[in-house]
Amino acid sequence: MNPRRASMIVAGAALCLVMSFAVTRARGTAFVDDLARKAVAARDAAGGKGVTLAFRDRYGWLTRHPVLSGGKGLDAVTRTRVAAAVAAVPGIGGVGWASEGDARASSLHCQDDVERILETRTIRFGEASTRLDPSSARLLDEVALSLRPCVGSLIAVTGHTDAGGNPKVNVALSLARAEAVRSALVARGIPAEGLRAAGLGATKPVEGLDPRDPANRRIEFSVIFSAPVKPTPIDTPGPE
């Protein structure tokens, strides 16, 4: 096939992926915005106007598992009633009260373990491809093993590229590779509900590296303690 024609086909496919991702993201935002409006109404009706509902985690990911905080001065009965009202909104996957505890520390420990594994090795793909290189199978086994203690948290799988080539194609390629890694982790026993894939293209190169350096082609993992994979409808209210 003519190289130029092949390049145009790849670019066209990548643009389709970008457009599909943008539409999906827009729909997801509208869905969560609607959930948030209904949840706020339910919160107010239950007497919890001082309670804050977070439908985004600290990394900015949308979630159907809002984290409740605030409500200083509300008694335990009212706080439980507020949580129950929010959890009862159709589409809400579960709620929890913000707290700092062992689960967050465990999540950070998991992320440190994965980062150490990837310090000297890289998850590899075929040339300009989203197909995982067979040589990365053992590395993915190790990553999955390190992430298992984090099940119950949200795990962000983020793809990056160098700055060579078309920026839109790079975003699509980085997202497709992140999705491939996500699928590989699901096949190794990590629950799909807790994995989020994203592609940033060349927008965040490694600090200190030339943006065009091939070393910027990488997959990163962020472990986010937010909501359980199989949440209880109402978690125990946090301290007032």
CATH architecture of the largest domain, please?
A: 2-Layer Sandwich
Structural class: alpha/beta
Mean pLDDT: 79
CA gyration radius, whole angstroms: 20 Å
- Termini separation comes to 67 Å
Look at the structure and give the CATH class of the largest domain: Alpha Beta
How many H/I helical runs?
5
At the third CATH level, what is the topology name of the largest domain? 60s Ribosomal Protein L30, Chain: A
Spatial order of strands in the largest sheet: 1-2-3
- Taking pLDDT < 50 over at least 5 consecutive residues as the criterion, the unreliable ranges are 21-25, 100-106, 226-240
**How many domains make up the coordinates?**
2
Total E-strand runs: 6
Shape: elongated
Give a quick account of the main beta sheet: strands, pairing sense, barrel closure.
3 strands, mixed
Question: Can you tell me about this structure?
Answer:
By secondary structure, the protein is an alpha/beta fold. The protein folds into two domains: 3-97, no CATH class; 102-224, 2-Layer Sandwich (60s Ribosomal Protein L30, Chain: A), CATH 3.30.1330. Helix content is 43%, strand content 15%. It has five helices and six strands. The strands form two sheets. A three-stranded mixed beta sheet has the order 1-2-3, covered by helices on one side. A three-stranded mixed beta sheet has the order 5-4-6. α5 (167-187) links the parallel β4 and β5 (195-199). α3 (102-117) runs antiparallel to α4. The protein is elongated, with a radius of gyration of 20 Å. The termini are far apart. The model is unreliable at 21-25, 100-106 and 226-240 (pLDDT under 50).
